[in-house]
Amino acid sequence: MKSFRLIVLTAAFLVMALSVFIFRGALAHFFGNLRISFSGAADGNFSYENYQSLKTQNEFLTQNCPTGENSRQLVVAGKYHAKEARIFSDYPFNNYSAVLIDLGSDDGMKAGMPVLVSEGVLLGKVTGVKRTQSEVETIFDPSWRSAVAFGEARSKALLVGGPAPYLDLIPKTAFSNIGDPVFNLAKDFPINLLLGKIISWEAGENDVWARAKVEPPASFENLGKVLVVTDFP
What we know:
Elements: H1 2-22, H2 24-42, H3 48-64, E1 73-76, E2 80-88, E3 98-101, E4 114-118, E5 121-129, E6 134-138, E7 145-150, E8 155-160, E9 166-171, E10 181-184, E11 194-202, E12 209-215, E13 225-229
Antiparallel strand pairs: 1-2, 2-3, 2-13, 3-6, 4-5, 4-13, 5-6, 7-8, 7-10, 8-9, 9-12, 10-11, 11-12
């Protein structure tokens, strides 16, 4: 009798162990939801419906977002396509007047392609292309010149590049506030890309034109990736 009960208990244990092994995913999901429910009951700000909505969105993105090299193809401003590129570093000697990226002719890179810090923010343009690498001239290059607009009145000026970019040839009648954004007007790049904001104003009484210092919208010291617009204009 004892041996029979031992056999039954052993068989029951094996069935339970096998069930746990086979259905471990469903069990983990069940206990995970149970834990979240108890946590939510203790948190007055917790919303289970919001949690389920976020979970559904996450699952959709996981299933539908591209991976690998395809993930480097992005849409910019709903109008242009761009490829994500990584920046090679010359630390500690890089002055950011030119940077080298890890996309080249094999990836469709061509001279003149606009390069963005992020969607809507201009960094420079591709100037040289090799098979797997490309050189990018940035707004920190002293030779950079491009037409821009600033402020609510969209007054025109010339952006002069360098370690400290500034606006030149500003009509003295133009009005600007500190903090006014500076936008691209040059035909070489998508219009209205952000270039920075005005941080100081310089105009002497006898000067024909005024100047304004510009602060770029991002710190480039830790910049590791950029976007190269591949179908402009």
